[in-house]
Amino acid sequence: MATFVLVHGSWAGGWNWARLRPFLADSGHHVLTPTLSGLGDRGHLAGPDIGLSTHIEDITRLLDWEDLTDVVLVGHSYGGMVVTGVLGRVPERLARVVYLDAFRPEPGQAAFDVLPELPGLFGEPPAEHPWGWPPVDLALLGIVEPADRDWMARKCTPMPVLTHREPLPAPQKQADVPITYLRGAAVPFFADTADKAEADGATVISWPDAAHYLQVHHAARTAELLLGLEEVAGDGGSG
């Protein structure tokens, strides 16, 4: 039995894995889908002090308090910022890190350094909560089916500004953990990030027909990939 910890992206929460999680759990695996501080069901904690370091601490403490080891740590989108920070804190608890169309920063980089065009996508925080961006138009991220857009729009919550402006801290420990990067190539946000991951030795898979929310549009296919990670790595990561 494997342990999967799935870390969501901007505006989302643990609910964002609702379609993917059953495929892993029904195969007998231990699956945790935490909600990061200030978002989703933890939105009552939102405020100007919630940043990337808060979310790295969220997941690091989860691994510690649940006594988890040999974890497959999965980050989607902004979740890639978080899992990279966790990798630098507790690599001994991880069996693999998987990036699902996600940020993969270097130490000292913030999200807006990795994708500098994104600030225009986010707009200005509203006066009633200047600490957080309202959810973006989901169509810009590949969510085009009305039912999917309605489902996500009902649950998305403002994203704390500091999460995308706070840089990734330097790693506290050296890590030798296998990396897999799955790129949804139909929305080209992370083409350069995927290329760099491959140059750094990661196993990279590109799905030309898949948009950004792989866990929503391609839940079964993504689960199949996660369940067969060793075989994918052995095949050299061809997509």
Automatic annotation (TrEMBL):
One Pfam family this sequence matches: Abhydrolase_6
**What keywords does the record list, in alphabetical order?**
Hydrolase
Entry annotated with the keyword Transferase: no
Q: Which terms in the Gene Ontology molecular function aspect does this entry carry?
A: hydrolase activity
For this UniProt entry, which segments traverse the membrane?
Answer: none
Q: Does the keyword Hydrolase apply?
A: yes
- Annotated ranges, domain AB hydrolase-1: 4-224
Database matches in PANTHER family: BLR6576 PROTEIN (PTHR42977:SF1), HYDROLASE-RELATED (PTHR42977)
Q: What is this protein called?
A: Alpha/beta fold hydrolase
Query: What organism is this sequence from?
Result: Pseudonocardia lutea
